[in-house]
Amino acid sequence: MNQLKLKFSSIEAPQSFDEVTTLIYSLISTTKLAVLQTYFGDSKLWGSLRLVRDIWIAYFLYNKITDIFTIIWGYGLIGSIKRLWRAINASIFSFVMTLPPIKRKVDKELEATIEKIETSLMQNDDKLLQFPKLPEEGISKESIVEELDKLQHLKHSDWNNGRVSGAVYHGGEELLDLQSEAYHKYAVANQLHPDVFPGVRKMEAEIVSMVLDIFNAPETGCGSTTSGGTESLLLTGLAAREYGKKNKGIIKPEVIAPVTVHAGIDKACSYFGMTLHKVDLDPETYQVDISKVKRLINKNTVLLVGSAPNYPHGIIDNIEELSKLALKYNIPLHVDACLGSFIVSFLERSKVHGDRPIPKFDFRLPGVTSISCDTHKYGFAPKGSSIIMYRNSKLRECQYYISSSWTGGMYGSPTLAGSRPGALMVGCWATLVKFGKDGYEESCRRIVDATMQLKSTLKTEETLSKYLEIIGDPIASVIAFKVKESEATNINIYELGDLLNSKGWHFAALQNPAGLHFALTRLTIPVVPELIEDLISSTKEAVQKRVSNNTVTSDTAAMYGVAGSVQTSGVADRLIVGFLDTLYKV
Ligand SMILES: *Cc1c(COP(=O)(O)O)cnc(C)c1O
């Protein structure tokens, strides 16, 4: 320390301010001369080009370095190294996969799996009429109706007995009749032509207004109807990108969302050229880790997303904290209540949780700028209907498509589609006003009650509580569970799923962590006791299976094994392509 002091004191300090300025000036002029010498030594033209080149390189490097630092700051040093390692790993393995002997082997296995998918999906029958081409002459109404019945009876999952997770959000037979009548009356309606169908315009406006009301929107609240949750998410993504561009000049937009966010957000980022940062969950609550969201916020962030609740685990993110971040950094916040729809919005009113306070997730939180709600899920409207809501019309305007100079006339369209099936909207309107607030409150109470019954059984029943663990603390209509860590070697969750499947139950498979979930619908309520019984017996069987046979024999486990490892994730992608191709094979 003493030595250090001595050294400092031995430097001769300038005696006056004048001396300092002279020193600086002479430094600058010598460097400037040196720089000019390097650039303009031979000719002015070459010198200028060299200067431009170097400024460009410096700018490029500056950007790259700030990008790298933003990533390191956002994901932490270890997190960034892990990401880099994963990326390197993936590219090495995708190269290895192209080596001929390996490629041949993988191709062969893929082909076999895709064939399996085809046999299970492409249900056909000699007795069915086949139409790979238009029939030369149309066929009679009677034969068409007969054919429709036959097609409906192809072997399929038993949804009508409530044994399928989610998928069919049935509002009752009487409602189906009403919806069919609404469809019949408005079969030709198209919202693209409000002058031709003024009644449809009024109904659509009222649908948006009714849903805004149940999500406690302010006076300025507004929105539009869409074809489904995915379109609502695409639009909120698009609107956020445009809003960020218009108001903050952001040209490299980024979105921050929990890993549990619906794939529709991935799709929005992929379609609209945005970088998506997926944030890990708090290991206790399974809500998005707020501190990690905060670290990832930067000048390019155009949107934060939370779910109420999310699809995989049925957990409502900590929207109150997300709202605070959104306000603090002045960034729009979207709440995906597509699945929660008429369940979360009625939790409070239905008092289904007694005195337990319900966390806030709607427009009452000042940071929330948009919410998506699927009327075609727990709203029981016909499939093909969802609502995207905004806090104000400045935000909504950013989702509009406007073309005033089109040769076909001045054109404007509020959503992704051009023409839209008005009949579906009418079906939605009829459903909402048929149920009313009381109807939805009642349906919320019954569905959530049944869900809580399943939840408490999972927690207390001897076998279930020994082997399985509920993911987080779900309070809506979805329960997800995984194998307890201590029992990991005694039972495989996908094997359990397959066993349940053989008993007619369709649980959804989850990954990272491996789990199963069930979304309860009105159809499930009467079969909850059976569900519990089969869950207990299947758990016992799954344990037995591991005792007698040490290898996992489940198809689902095999498939998720493939998808889960970095080495083979490219293969999983090809499997999905194969599945999608199968959809269009005649
Ligand atoms: C269902 C769902 C969506 C939207 O899905 P669509 O199939 O397009 O209606 C979005 N978010 C969550 C959480 C969902 O469960």
Q: Which architecture of the largest domain would the CATH scheme give at its second level?
A: 3-Layer(aba) Sandwich
Structural class: alpha/beta
Q: Work out the radius of gyration.
A: 30 Å
Q: Averaged pLDDT, please?
A: 89
Output the number of helix runs. 20
Low-confidence stretches: 1-10
Helix content: 40-55%
User: Could you give the order of strands across the largest sheet?
Assistant: 1-7-6-5-4-2-3
Characterize the overall form.
Answer: globular
* CATH secondary-structure class of the largest domain: Alpha Beta
**Main sheet specs:** 7 strands, mixed
Q: Which ions and ligands are bound to the chains?
A: pyridoxal-5'-phosphate
In terms of DSSP E residues, the strand content is 5-15%
CATH level 4 superfamily of the largest domain: Type I PLP-dependent aspartate aminotransferase-like (Major domain)
CATH topology term of the largest domain: Aspartate Aminotransferase, domain 2
| Overall number of structural domains | 3
Instruction: Please give the number of β-strands.
Output: 13
Report how far apart the termini are. Answer: 85 Å
Subcellular location: Endoplasmic reticulum membrane
Membrane topology: Single-pass membrane protein
GO cellular component, one term: cortical endoplasmic reticulum
EC number: 4.1.2.27
Structure characterization notes:
The protein is of the alpha/beta class. It folds into three domains: 2-41; 179-435, 3-Layer(aba) Sandwich (Aspartate Aminotransferase, domain 2); 443-582, Alpha-Beta Complex (Aspartate Aminotransferase, domain 1), CATH 3.90.1150.10. Helix content is 53%, strand content 10%. The chain has 20 helices and 13 strands. The chain has helices at residues 2-10, 17-40, 44-96, 100-121, 141-152, 173-185, 198-214, 229-248, 263-271, 290-296, 319-329, 341-344, 347-350, 393-397, 422-460, 462-467, 493-502, 528-548, 555-564, 569-582, and strands at 222-226, 254-258, 275-279, 301-307, 333-336, 368-373, 386-390, 401-403, 411-413, 468-470, 478-483, 508-510, 515-519. The chain has a seven-stranded mixed beta sheet, sandwiched between helices. It has a four-stranded antiparallel beta sheet with strand order 10-11-13-12. Strands 8-9 form a two-stranded antiparallel ribbon. Helix 3 runs antiparallel to helix 10 and helix 4 packs parallel to helix 20 (569-582). Mean pLDDT is 89; it is low at 1-10. It binds pyridoxal-5'-phosphate.
